[in-house]
Amino acid sequence: MIAKELQEEVYNCIKCGICMNACPVYKQLHVEGAAPRGKVQLIKKIQEGKFDISEGFKNLLYTCLLCETCTVNCPSGVKIDRLFKAMRAEVLKKYKLPLLKRIMSTVLSSDQLLPFCMFWGRTLGNPLMALLPKNGKIGAISFSKLPKFNGKPLMDQYPEIISPSGKAQGRVIYFPGCANNFLFENVGNSTIKVLQRLGVEVVFPKDLKCCSLPIFLSGARQMALSNIKSNLSAFSRYDNVDAIIVDCATCGAAFKEEYVHILGEMGEDTKEAQKVKNKVMDISQYLAKFDLKKYLQPLKGRVTYHDPCHLVRSQKIKDEPRALLKQIPGLDFAEMVGADVCCGGGGTFQLDHPDISVSITKNKIQSIRNTGADTVASGCPGCRLQINGNLGNEKIRVVHPIELLAEAMGKV
Amino acid sequence: MIRPEVIQKFVSIVGKDRCKTSPEDLLTHSYDASILEFVPDAILFPVSTEEVSRIMVLASAENVFVTPRGSASGLGGECLAKKGGILLSFTQMNKILEINTENRYAIVEPGIVIADFQKAVEAVNLFYPPDPGSATVASIGGAVMMNAGGMRGIKYGVTRDYLLGMEIVLPSGEVMKTGTITAKDVTGYDLTRLICGSEGTLAIATKITVRLLPKPKARRTLLAIYDDIDDAGKTVAKIVEAGIIPATMELMDKTVIKAVEEAFHLGLPLDAAALLLIDVDGDDATIERQSPLIAEFCQGQGARNVRTSSSEEENVQLWAARRAAFGCIARLRPTCLIEDATVPVNQMVKAIKKVKEICERNNVQIAVLAHAGDGNLHPLMLCDQRDKEEMARVEKAMDEFVEYAMTIGGTLSGEHGIGVNKAKYLPQQLSATSLKIQRGIKNVFDPQGILNPGSFLEVSPK
Q1: Which of A241, A405, B53, B323 is the least buried, fewest Cβ under 10 Å from its Cβ?
Q2: Which residues pair with A203 in a beta bridge?
Q3: Is B196 helix (H, G, I), strand (E, B) or coil?
Q4: Is the separation of the CB atoms in A184 and A66 below 8 Å?
């Protein structure tokens, strides 16, 4: 069963229902089983031995974005997302992961398979992608909106130590995350370029693994363990660094929130994870201490910002990315209504529940459209895929805030 | 248990997707916001009056119990399938059918969440005042059946005061209209207001017509801090006596303040004994005139500090915190039973003292919240439902307090309803004649007794 202190959480749910109207999934389905309150009550019954983990319960538990909106809105302070995450691991003791997730988790957690798949992805996948039917979809994402694989993994494009321009003012470790390493190289390039320009030495370890969040949040904690440990030991190799910089909301959430909890609940040592937790910073947080104004050239257009769940709720980062965007001269910043509402992607949620996912994303797209922005910025590759994948023919660019910042810094 | 072939007939009305019988669905529809649990045999999700009517025709023919349910945020088991049978959930019948700005009314389906409806009418500069603490959860259908009150009661009244009419389905399946869309209507018995507050025992509402007001131009929130809860109570009585009518006057004691502060970090003073949260609304001139006057009253009665909110954003935060107070209390103990006895405003200070004394004597942990302007007390009894002995003490304290409230001219329930738990007290307030007439009314609407069985009239002592 799940950890003792989590078990007690279910008794603090007073069933007031405030989570229901906060839950993007409940608001689509309007069935109590989809509501956080409903799932918490089922977990209580399971704990008390009055109900068994069932196929139906499993389906409900995975009909959840893990967007954490319920947790931050729960007046009773029930750690709803922690309960669900731990319960997913319990469910997997009885049921297998669905095939697609099993393959994905195996690939992401393997030293050999990941580079192998990525190699074939760019050699065969990129050209073949053009042949996919235009109106086809994978999950909630249109084929025509799938990103191309990087020509070369980001990790292979840089040396281990990247020197800054001018005198070194600081030293950080950079963690690119799989998405930037293999798909969105411009995000990583932008982060590195900005840091260099600001006089920060960047350490880019070559043995970093997938942060494994998609693996352990699907419940497969054991499968994620070696990656977690390997990343922690890679980080611990370098002392004398100001911070570990992450430009992916999800990886940041993994290091700052999840690792300590997961290891603790698995009975593993959490000392290293705790150290890393205190060192990790989202790029927008790290840049807050710099005076950027003097480096920035004007850009054109209007930008709006979408809060990734893994930044705004998992890491409580809300103002820093906006501050970066607002500093760029010439760029008009427009806040959208419901910027912190989940985009509906939810990592692999959009693969499991494309219909629910798309109906949530529609509202987000409408919100973006209402601002009249030509660019939407968001620091999460999942949100980026989801939003971009559902924009249709709309001419709105989806980027990471750091990409705009790098553009405003001009060529180095 | 409902026979499988009968379930099949219900499926033929709403389709497979909207008839749920899986154990997970049954369990997640077995509770509301109280500690009661009753498992239904099936849950149906109708989306039209016609479906509801056909469901009731079938239920009558097969003698199947039917219990209507909104969002299940009630506090007394009113929307639970107390004797099994069908639970009729309106969560998917939740559209706004019309917002009429010329005649200032709206027609809605029962499942719409109150806050969502309020937002929609406010977007066109109209105002639906009834504002239960649970407005972000509760449905209008549920609010109508419970005649929900809430925080704006002192100035704006309760749900019943805004009802113009309804479309209802009787237990027999017959569809009937009550009321009109006009502001005045004295044609026949006022069935609209009879059904409102009937706790879902007489008929099922499928369309609800409500009266709307012009949206107040502005509002301001005052926060008065006290070192003595009596002074807060006296302030309320003084303001009411002086003929000033704020939009809301909410009282929280130190335990509630602590729980709310822990959840929301608003900078509420943890050493205060009580606070009053007072809203004034209207045009700018009214606000400018009323708010300093109210602040003076607060200070005159010993408020340590009176703060005026500086922005609408701060107002929203303060009220979100008040809304969540019931949930916040669960941070202190797992279970919270919420009392709802309501007393004349000038008796409130005495009543608060009394409930504290009763709880102390019975060794029950208590926090006090009140819609103070209405004398509507919400003593929160903190406990753990797993502890049988403690729960017995809580029940004893409740018994004593209800008895006391009766002696000073109070009522059993101001707004939460009688439901299952308070039914035993009914004869303390309602005479045998009154109960006889009420049972007679029930019998006219529902001769077979299939609608919401196990409700207050049946479980109260005969």
Answers
A1: A241
A2: A161, A173
A3: coil
A4: no
Do the chains contact at A56 and B23, CB–CB below 8 Å?
A: yes
Is-above-0.90 flag for pTM?
Answer: yes
Domain interval for residue B437 = 423-459
Q: Give the pairing type, strands B303-308 and B218-226.
A: antiparallel
Q: CA torsion B452→B457→B458→B459, rounded to 10°?
A: 110
For a pLDDT cut of 90, what percent of chain A falls above it?
A: 82
Number of domain units in chain B: 3
Q: Which residues make beta-bridge pairs with B381?
A: B337, B366
Domains, chain A, ordered by start:
4-94 (1.10.1060.10), 293-409 (3.40.50)
pLDDT above 90 (res B415)? yes
CA distance A33 to chain B (A): 6
Judge whether B380 lies within some domain.
yes
C-alpha A135/C-alpha B307 separation (Å) is 59
With CA atoms as reference, report the closest residue to B362 among B405, B388, B401, B393.
Answer: B393
Q: How far is CA B435 from CA B174, B425, B440, B458, in A?
A: 26, 12, 8, 10
Instruction: Say if CB A363 and CB A338 are below 8 A apart.
Output: yes
Considering only CB atoms, B330 lies closest to which of A35, A56, A76, namely A76
Residues A164 and A196 sit within 8 Å (Cβ to Cβ): yes
The complex's ipTM?
0.94
What are the pLDDT digits (tens) for B366-393? Answer: 999 999 999 999 999 999 999 999 999 9
Residues in A closer than 8 angstroms to B29, CB to CB, are: 32
Q: Give how far B331 is from chain A: nearest CA, Å.
A: 5
Is B38 inside any structural domain?
Answer: yes
- The answer to whether A15 contacts B31, with C-beta atoms less than 8 Å apart, is yes
Cβ–Cβ pairs < 8 A, chains A and B: 104
Answer whether B381 touches A (CB < 8 Å): no
The per-residue pLDDT for range A347-392, each reduced to its tens digit, is 999 999 999 999 999 999 999 999 999 999 999 999 999 999 999 8
- Cα distance from A21 to chain B (closest Cα, Å)? 6
* Cα radius of gyration rounded to whole Å, chain A: 21
State whether residue B37 sits within 8 Å of chain A by CB: no
User: Are B201 and B70 contained in the same domain?
Assistant: yes
Contact yes or no for A33 and B25 at CB 8 A: yes
Residues in chain B: 462
Search chain B and give the residue with CA nearest A59. Answer: B24
**Whole-number Å distance between alpha carbons of A352 and A6:** 27
**Chain A CB within 8 Å of residue B4 CB:** no
Q: What is the pLDDT of residues B164-182, one digit of tens each?
A: 999 999 999 999 999 999 9
Token pair recorded at residue A45:
């019954």
Tell me, yes or no, whether B257 and B393 share the same domain: yes
Task: Work out the pLDDT band at A165, boundaries 50, 70, 90.
Answer: confident
> Domain for residue B138, yes or no?
yes
Q: 3-class secondary structure for chain A? A: CCCHHHHHHHHHCCCCCCCCCCCHHHHHHCCHHHCHHHHHHHHHHHHCCCCCCCHHHHHHHCCCCCCCHHHHHCCCCCCHHHHHHHHHHHHHHHCCCCHHHHHHHHHHCCCCHHHHHHHHHHHHHHHHHCCCCCCCEECCEEHHHCCCCCCCCHHHHCCCEECCCCCCCEEEEEECHHHHHHHCHHHHHHHHHHHHHCCEEEECCCCCCCCCHHHHHCCCHHHHHHHHHHHHHHHHCCCCCCEEEECCHHHHHHHHHHHHHHHHHCCCCCHHHHHHHHHEEEHHHHHCCCCCHHHCCCCCCEEEECCCHHHHCCCCCCHHHHHHHHHCCCCEECCCCCCCCCCCCCCCHHHHCHHHHHHHHHHHHHHHHHHCCCEEECCCHHHHHHHHHCCCCCCCEEECHHHHHHHHHCCC
- The closest CB to that of B324, out of A13, A18, A32, belongs to A18
